[in-house]
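Lab notebook page, bench 4
Experiment: in silico fold of construct C2
Operator: M.H.
Input chain length: 121 residues
Purpose: comparison with the prior construct
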Amino acid sequence: MKQLLLVFLGGGFGSMLRFAFGKFLNNSQNGIPYGTFAANVIGSLLIGLILGLAAKNDTLSSNQTLLLATGFCGGFTTFSTFAYENHVLLKSGDFMSFAIYTIASFVLGFLAVFFGMYLAK
């Protein structure tokens, strides 16, 4: 039960922060949803740092890892939103924004995880 509560709390805070990013950074005028993009790249960096620290000399407890990685990062990152926004870009015919957003999200997301793991060493 404690583990579910930790994931719930972390996810709630992550979701609130993701909402704020979207509210202030997403703009239908500029094509690319920068708030979602930023949340996914920053969340990837954070999960790399968190899991890297958790693996390094047991720096984080399993409860802290659940709260931060599973809860917060799970609530903060936005794959379902990412998929929907790509659908909107394709449907509107904005193929360039679709390509840039999709490729940059994957490449920078993966690099951010690796960089987070590197920083945690």
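Observations: The mean pLDDT is 93. The first helix runs from residue 2 to 25.
Next step: discuss at group meeting.
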